[in-house]
Amino acid sequence: MKILLVDDEREEREGISWLIKKYKYPLEIVQAANGKEALQCIEKYKIDILFTDVKMPVMNGLELAKEVYKRWPEIKIIIYSAYGEFDYAKQALEANAVSYLLKPIEIEEFQKLMVSVIQAINDDNKKDELKQNAEIQNRKNLFYKIFNRAHIAADDREKVNQILFEQSNIGCKLLDVEFAENFFEEHEELFTHFLKMYMGKNVLYFNMYPNEAYLLVQEKKYLTGNQLEEQAEKLLMDLHKETHSEAVMIISDLIDNDAKLEEQLVKIHKIQSEIFGYDNQIIRVKSYYSETEYYASDVESAGKKLEQAFASMDLELIKKQNELLKKTILSLDKVSKLYLQNILYSIIKSLYDKSPKIKMEEVLASSERMFRAKNAKTMLEIYGESIDKMLDSLAVEKQDDSRIIHKIKNLIEKDYAKDISLNYVAENVNLTPAYVSYIFKKETGQTLVKYITDVKMMKAKVMLEEGTLKIVQIAKACGYENQSYFNKLFKNYYGITPKQLREKI
């Protein structure tokens, strides 16, 4: 908190300064010799209290007070003077001064005034903080809704455009960060620490689910070039060192209006449904789509012919079409690793569905080797080994993915009171975590963690509406030992806290 002492007599300023220090008021003191200097100080520093004399050269105290109130109405103004005429006091009131003191200053009157003004500033700061927090929460509620639906309601578009251009006149970029496990419940503080370190304090952070968050980046230096991707790599690297976590981060194109935000969200959601595994990948929306579209036609045509051969169960035809697919891929000058991973895994999975004697662990092991390959040739060699092995044991039975999903959903419905993780589900359905994550997202259109959270939040709401359990008991009954995190997650999900919901009933 800063006080600006303005008087053309240095002794007067030092006298007031001495009183402030003597009575230990929590004020940082700035001094000026006239109104003009005072305005320069206010432009340079954030001043909370203006304590000014009346009679001064260049610009007197009353003129200064009127100008300050006009430009900075939040500053508390105290005028003191040797002149006690009514006209001066009247002009001080017109300048919105909180008090008009006469020289020599009465100590008791000075003390009462300073305590009162400092308290008033503290009260104003608390009101501003509450207002600011409410505005931040309203923004979060708005964006939680938008991020989930990839749609902006007509009534919200003006507000969204205002936020998008708040810090930059060229727009912003959106980052989606998804971890393999329930990362934020335990490591949110660490995440925000590294986020501020590498991307600054002005990034808007939205923790959507225990394993997912969106970041809205508006600083100009991150909107062009590769600096944002470089900082994102450092962020994921440090998080991995500290927590051994794995994540995938998707970086949008430049968003310069509400329609572009919707478009990018649709693309991000599509990428989320297509990628396999985490492995601390960073994916640019622009690169992902431009690289895959470049050669999608020829490769997908060859891939479809191969899958049609699977349906015929003609082993010679399958081998022939598989060789054609590999030649098509190798003939391309430009190959997207991500696209290649996804199409080859899709083919392996299609053949696995017809190969009951092959264990999923074997398929996943070869797939993970394939994903770590440094080039297309190596990737295709590993892919070829996997296909050949399945062709040797090919049969007519088919693994029913819907049965796996049904089993997972039943497990979550039964065990929602536990701290259900990806590893927990994988162990109970005898599959690897990577495959459970992929197949659940592929078959349902949403992540496993999101589905688990949806179930837990719906159960919590029913308990709050129908039962008599305390909120802390409901949190534990839904698998959340940390009640404050449960409260935060519930508010993000429904827009109100558990307590507020119960009070409405």
Automatic annotation (TrEMBL):
Modified residue annotations for 4-aspartylphosphate: D53
Primary location recorded for the protein, binned into one broad class: cytoplasm
Extent of the signal sequence: none
GO molecular function: DNA-binding transcription factor activity; sequence-specific DNA binding
Residue ranges occupied by any Response regulatory domain in the UniProt entry: 2-118
CDD domains per the UniProt record, alphabetical: REC_YesN-like (cd17536)
One GO cellular component term noted in the UniProt record for this chain: cytoplasm
Listed InterPro entries: CheY-like_superfamily, Homeodomain-like_sf, HptR, HTH_AraC, Sig_transdc_resp-reg_receiver, Tscrpt_reg_AraC-type_HTH
Residue ranges of domain HTH araC/xylS-type in the record: 406-504
Keyword annotations: Cytoplasm, DNA-binding, Phosphoprotein, Transcription, Transcription regulation, Two-component regulatory system
Record GO biological process: phosphorelay signal transduction system
Keyword Transcription regulation included in the entry's annotation: yes
Localization (cell): Cytoplasm
General function of this protein: May play the central regulatory role in sporulation. It may be an element of the effector pathway responsible for the activation of sporulation genes in response to nutritional stress. Spo0A may act in concert with spo0H (a sigma factor) to control the expression of some genes that are critical to the sporulation process.
Official protein name in the record: Stage 0 sporulation protein A homolog
Protein source organism: Dorea longicatena
The gene coding this protein: ypdC_1
